[in-house]
Amino acid sequence: ILNVFLEVIGVGSGAARVEVLLPDYPGALAPVVRVIGDLGVNIVSVFSPRAQDGARVLIFRLATRELEPVLTALAREGIEVVSAEEAGD
Question: Model pTM?
Answer without folding.
Answer: 0.82
